[in-house]
């Protein structure tokens, strides 16, 4: 009978190789049990990575589109908040202007005028609102606040109405100023600091876009600001001493505020329609990302039960190898004899 012996050096080398292989298996299986993902994906897919690459590309693209959608949604919320605040201010300002009791005496009319001047600052602050560091009502020039300060606007208005002797003349001059087209030296050139070009579109997915065309130079914003300025002019000395004309000025101011409020309602409904489109696209992208995630998991996921069984088996083999190594290390010729 032939007997092939294994020398000490060869045996030690064999034991070390077995030890390293078992440790590597345990590490790999432990990772698969913990993460639920195959550690060697190319081997698991037999080298066919095309399907996985397409899924990964779809997930990255979906993530990018959802990030754009989140920015678009935040912009819409900021515009709604700005226009909604402006509407509320217009309502609050118009109420006392339409009250005969509040305009009955020069003193009470002055209170209404002072309130309008204070509310003008709040109105401009609302319009100058921003989202994610961008001014949402500045059109394409989103890094610049769309409106000058309330003090600057009042100074411009006082220059426009200088020398006017009746409420009708004051109102007409201000209307011309606020409604003048760009390049005519009116509100669009002196008071509005944003762009006359609309803000860029948001690419929501491969085939859908959204854009908010609203700016601080829109008719609704201009009408509300005109009404606020008309009311505030009485506080700055316009038509002083003529209570009748100042009362008419308040009537014109209330009318401008009411007209502006109507335009703002239309603008807010347009913003709401755009927000609805953004929300639908975002929901579709969320569903797509979930579906792709499931497909990816099906491709690369590891069977936790199978991996756990192999892990226990590898640990048992490693313990047996340790025991064998320990016994072999205690063997000697003296003990054998």
Short description:
The chain is mainly α and 337 residues long. 69% of the residues lie in helices and 2% in strands.
Mean residue pLDDT: 84
The amount of helix comes to 55-70%
Counted up, domains total: 1
CATH class: Mainly Alpha
Tell me the strand order in the biggest sheet. Answer: 1-2
Shape: rod-shaped
CATH superfamily assignment?
f41 fragment of flagellin, N-terminal domain
Q: Write the CATH architecture name.
A: Up-down Bundle
Q: How far is the first residue's CA from the last residue's CA? A: 23 Å
> Over the alpha carbons, how many angstroms does the gyration radius reach?
38 Å
Structural write-up:
The strands form 2 sheets. The chain has a two-stranded antiparallel ribbon. Strand 1 (130-131) and strand 2 form a beta hairpin. It has one domain (53-292): f41 fragment of flagellin, N-terminal domain. Helix 3 packs antiparallel against helix 9, helix 6 runs antiparallel to helix 8 (219-233) and helix 6 packs parallel to helix 9. The chain is built from 11 helices and 4 strands; from the N terminus they run ααααββαααββαααα. It is mainly α. It has helices at residues 8-35, 41-44, 50-97, 106-127, 150-161, 167-179, 187-190, 219-233, 243-300, 304-329, 333-336; strands at residues 130-131, 134-135, 202-203, 209-210.
Lay out the secondary structure.
Blueprint: H1 8-35, H2 41-44, H3 50-97, H4 106-127, E1 130-131, E2 134-135, H5 150-161, H6 167-179, H7 187-190, E3 202-203, E4 209-210, H8 219-233, H9 243-300, H10 304-329, H11 333-336
Antiparallel strand pairs: 1-2, 3-4
InterPro entries: Flagellin_C
Domain Flagellin C-terminal: 258-337
Protein name: Flagellin C-terminal domain-containing protein
């Amino acid at each position: 009978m032939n007997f092939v012996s294994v020398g000490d050096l060869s045996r030690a080398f064999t034991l070390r190789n077995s030890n390293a292989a078992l440790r590597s298996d345990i590490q790999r299986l432990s990772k698969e049990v913990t993460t639920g993902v195959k550690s060697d994906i190319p081997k698991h897919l037999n080298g066919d990575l095309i399907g996985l690459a397409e899924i990964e590309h779809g997930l990255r693209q979906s993530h990018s589109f959802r990030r754009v959608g989140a920015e678009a949604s935040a912009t819409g919320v900021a515009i709604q908040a700005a226009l909604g605040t402006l509407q509320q201010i217009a309502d609050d300002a118009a109420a006392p202007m339409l009250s005969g009791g509040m305009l009955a005496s020069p003193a009470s009319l002055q209170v209404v005028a002072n309130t309008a001047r204070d509310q003008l600052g709040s109105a401009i602050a609302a319009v100058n609102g921003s989202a994610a560091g961008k001014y949402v009502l500045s059109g394409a020039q989103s890094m610049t606040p769309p409106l000058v300060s309330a003090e600057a606007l009042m100074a411009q208005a006082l220059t426009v109405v200088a020398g006017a002797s009746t409420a009708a003349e004051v109102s007409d001059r201000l209307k011309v100023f606020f409604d003048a087209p760009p390049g005519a030296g009116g509100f669009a050139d002196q008071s509005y600091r944003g762009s006359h070009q609309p803000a860029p579109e948001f690419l929501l997915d491969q085939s859908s876009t959204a854009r908010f065309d609203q700016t601080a130079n829109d008719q609704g914003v201009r009408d509300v600001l005109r009404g606020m300025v008309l009311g505030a002019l009485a506080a700055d000395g316009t038509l002083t001493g003529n209570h009748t004309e100042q009362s008419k000025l308040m009537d014109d101011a209330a009318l401008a505020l009411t007209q502006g409020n109507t335009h703002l309602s239309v603008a807010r409904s347009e913003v709401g329609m755009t927000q609805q489109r953004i929300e639908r696209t975002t929901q579709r992208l969320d569903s797509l990302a979930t579906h792709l995630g499931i497909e990816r998991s099906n491709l690369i996921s590891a069977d936790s039960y199978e991996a756990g069984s192999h892990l226990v088996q590898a640990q048992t083999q490693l313990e047996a190898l340790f025991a064998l190594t320990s016994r072999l290390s205690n063997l000697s010729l003296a003990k054998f004899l």
